[in-house]
Design goal:
By secondary structure, this protein is an alpha+beta fold. Strands 1, 2, 3 and 4 form a four-stranded mixed β-sheet that branches. It is flat. It has helices at 73-76, 85-97, 102-111, 118-149, and strands at residues 12-16, 31-42, 45-55, 67-68. Helix 2 (85-97) crosses helix 4 (118-149). Bound molecules: zinc ion. Zinc ion is lined by residues 23, 25-26, 28, 56, 58, 61, 63. The site of zinc ion (ZN) has 8 residues, from loops.
Length: 170
Amino acid sequence: MARRNPRPEATQKKMLIPLKERCEQCGQPLWVAHHSHRTVTTLPGLWKLTLVVRQCIQPSCPRFHKPYRPEEEGVWALPHGEFGLDVIALIGQWRFQEHAGVPEMHQALLARGISIAERSVTHLMQRYEELVALRITDQQRIKARLQKQGHVILAIDGLQPDVGHEVRMP
Ligand SMILES: [Zn+2]
C-alpha cells in the first residue's frame, strides 16, 4: 500500500563506522564490504544514516564474508525500525506514566513535527512493551547463565575484552 503522506527528506546525515577493525574470530584486518543506508526518525529530526559494513576476507575463517555492522546502529533504532528508540521511549512514557491513548499520542507527536501514522504509534507502543518484557526476562536469563558459567567477561561500550585480560567475577 502506498503511503498517503510521503516521508519528508532527511534533514541530518551521519556516517556510522564499526569500532572493530579486526575480525574477532581470526584477528585479520576487516575490509569494507559495502555501505548500507537507513533513514531514522528521532525526536530531534530525520536522520539519513550511512553504515559502513565490514567483513573478514580470510577464506578459512568461520566469519568469512559475514557482515560486521557498526555497533552504534543499535543505539539508534531497532532492526528494520524507521523510528528512533527515543520516540519509542517517549510513547512508552506517555502510555504507562500518563495513560495516554493512541490518538492522543499521535496528535502529540504530529505537534512535535514528527511525521507518523496512527497505526505506527500502536506498533511502536507494542515494541516498547516487548522491550520491557525482554529486559525483565533477559535479566533472569543472564542471572541463570552467570550462575551456570561462574564468571563473566566484562566489555564496556562495545570494546572487546582483550584475550587473557578477562575480569573474572566469582
Ligand atoms: Zn576472520
